[in-house]
Amino acid sequence: MKSASAWVPDGAVITPLDEDDLLAKVQTLVDKKVEAVAIVFLHAYANPAHEDAALAAIERAFPDLIITASHDVAPEIREYDRTSTTVTNAYVKPLAHTYVDRLVAQTKDLGISAPYFMMLSNGGLTHIAEAKRSPVQLLESGPAAGALVAAHFGSQAGIDNILAFDMGGTTAKLALVDNGEPHVAYHFEAAREKRFAEGSGLPLTISAIELIEIGAGGGSIAHIDAMELLKVGPESAGSEPGPVCYGRGGTNPTVTDADLLLGYLNAGSFAGGSMNIDADAAARAMQPLADKSGLSVIDTARGIYEVVNENMASAARVHIAERGKDPRLYTLLATGGAGPVHAYYVARKLGVRRIICPPAAGVASALGLLIAPARIDRVATVATPLDAINWPDLEAAYRALETDAADVIAETGFDPAAARITRLADMRYVGQGFEVVVTLPAGPYTAESARMMLDAFETSYRQTFSRTPPDVVAEIINIRVSLRADVPGERAEFATGAAGETGGGQTGTRPVRFPENNDFVDTAVYDRARLRPGDSFTGPAVVEEAESTLIIGPGGEARIDDAGNLIVELPQ
Amino acid sequence: MTDQQQAFDSATLEVLWTRLVSIVDEAAAALVRTSFSTVVRDSHDFSCVITDVSGGSLVQATDSIPSFIGTLPRTIRHFLDEYPAETLQPGDVLITNDIWMGTGHLPDISVGRPLFHDGKLVGFAGSTAHAPDIGGKIRSPEPREVFEEGFQIPIMKLIRAGEPDETFFQLLRKNVRTPDEVVGDLWAQVTALDLMADRIDGFMTEYGLSTLQDLATEIQSRSERAMRAAIRALPDGVYKNTISTDGLTEPLDLEVTLTIRDDEVFADYTGSAPQVDKAINCAMCYTYAMTAYAVKCVAAPDLPNNEGAIRPIHATAPEGCILNPRFPASGGSRALIGHFVPSLVFGALAQIMPEKIMAGAGSPLWCITQSGVTDAGKSFAKLFFFNGGMGGTAQSDGQSCLSWPSNISATPVEVIEQLAPLRIRHRRLRPGSGGEGQHRGGLGQEIMFENLTKTPCAVSFLAERTRIAAPGIAGGDDGAKGEIQINGDTVDPKSQHILKSGDTVMMRTPGGGGYGPVDARNPETAQQDRDEEKV
Question: What ipTM was estimated for this complex?
Fold first, then answer.
């Protein structure tokens, strides 16, 4: 549906809004039983007056329609991305309203009277009304909670820079945590048509904890391709039929089958002893690959382990490099069923020197929901070179965003005065099309702040790209604020029960094949539940727990810290 | 080092290869993120490669556009002819934009850096990127010779052992309209080379490699075997096809004789029109890249790009032909001819396997270049891209407004209005522009601009299929032709035009051809087309 209305980039009106025409067109949509409407006008990021007017007029005429205006959910330049975000929001809004209302009503019926919060993709909590206003923000909230808890376990162990590595049955997810904060991206791609391929999804301009997802999990299937290369994934046997060794009808050799043959997994105590594991079937399924590649079955299994590790390490390497960071400065935190099995050797490929394996990693996301702060992000487009900025206007624009965000924090039931306010700006050199999101010092800003902003930008720019170009003016595209208020008791310790009472913890030995060795070596096996704070030992070692197994290579130094985290230092 | 070729097992090779790809992808990410012009960052009009010591490519960045298949490694070989290995030292960066040794037009600047490990030359890192400006006549088909097209860079050392050639930078800045953007992008290319050099050094140390040669041989020979096997599966034979393009005053014919013999493909373009004194000549390097792309699409689309994968694909054209022009032919708008090459090859293959072929696309991409002086007295040149519809296939309707065969995205309205003194009065799909068929061709687009400069400015275009439509296949209809109007009058899209304040330009991009007879179209889909005003 088209409606006459036009603006220019600085927000001046060219064609006024024709309300009668607009309402006639909306009527044709209503006649077709449309429930939700998205309103997008060009340059509405600069001047939302027409969108506001259209919204008000439609609301008056059609009170039952659920309406989303673009400046309200994605006030950023680039009409395609803004429209995609607005339409996605309009699409999910009726569903979200029904779902959230029912959820609230039913928990009330259960006698739960606590205030209700929802996790957003940016890793912050908000109240129900905000979630219903802009449900597109809820999209990635589950994985966001996982990244938050990684940051939490890291800070508990006194480590601020974390590479969160979660490997499950079908995919592996990686997220960076710097200075105790997960990275937040301001663009997100949903529903990729071609799995994992960038550019094949819907572009959404929402803030979301930045995660990369790759098709590498315990169920990933290994095969030999046309070039006689050993490939692993992205096709997955999932959990049904699952790996061959599960004996549920899977016939394709998977990463889990390889892990079992290498001695990393204990066939007897798999999933707490609740499953019958068939190592012979795994070996038989591996035989055709071995025949094609000319390797033994065990070397094929070793190859699968190496290849899937390299796939994950390569994805992490490109991801980290895109942000101008150095992987060697991170600690890898492993969660998920397959994460601890692969963490040590993914770390080695990245040059990472330390891994953490937290207790109770299986319920990580749920824990994240308990420790998340209330967080509200707001954005506005400025698109002005630094040397042309009207400083009182800029300060007023930041204040307006802060007031708006503080109102939501207050409505959520937190004290906005205690909230941490971060000002940020998307900056670039004039002519560039990618912005660097720069964290700025606190305001208020005056004309004297130009130098400070340029310094902050150039520091971030150099961190990312290692050099700054000569003689180019910088500009601010978007300004952002982020308000966070801690949930009372956030830093409370969780009684995970993972640190055992008995100490020692070694239960025996078994032959294990490590990448450094050409044969199996007899390796100490520990029971995680029987390790306690202060215990330490040197790899090679295998640490078993109900949900996963931690593999420690030769020379790795393991210890249990006071919080029950297992920390492993890799040899130089 | 021994003379014995080191053997790599399936797993080890996969691990090393994955790492090499991640290195060029890292470099590509750095190039995109540090570039200044819209061309590189929004249109991915660039490439990064790593080659062996003789210029044979090992890996190419995943997002590279087809125009660069095989071109950059050839440029590296030209670098080597000019600067043999013994004249190279760590920290050198070589450069050229020579049409014949590069990619067929001057705006593509190619740079290469020798890679050293333990003091020994082990290979090259290369990158090509489309510069936002290169001087000369603004991108239009009018130049008669390369001399009119802008600043020519012979093969030379841009950086000598870490020392940039300041004289060169002064000359370059003086000869381009937007020196900050051009030089900024060139430094972004150098950043990408630096990154590749650093990563390769670390990679070789980690895996104890003293040379890349054994790895290169292994990667290339496996890719070559896979491509040969794929070609062997195609029926042997000689397949001819001829198509016409808009041309200049008269349509120009392109002709291919495609021979599939055992495990090799030979494309011979004898019979195509002779070179012309307009900048639409398509240098052999570009003709080859487009040929290799088309054959790969049909035979082995998933095969990674490297020397081995394209070795069984051959292309020849008589010297002096529009697909292999002689010096000093101009070629700035080579895409106007070159983007037809994949369609030409597809047409030949459609005779034996229509189910694998897409109907004619509304390609090549269109663009508008606006240049002049801002109200503040500063000269400017802005380039924006638009696309026609793709062709229908045996599987589905063609996509609307999508670039093919180059992956260049259309510029957003809000960005155009931010960057250039233009107002977009409207931009919309062209109903009915897709060729009807069992699977309809994708739609073209209609964009109306108004010029806002106070003093007159110049506009020029890349626009094709304004006379000859994108053909349907297997019984599908042709797509709608494209059109450009200024103030309501249809104009010659191949000439430069002057716009006064308030003048309007209407661009209508062509639709794609349909696949299969229209009576085979699903009636529900046909109704949906009517509901959505696509027909």
Answer: 0.81
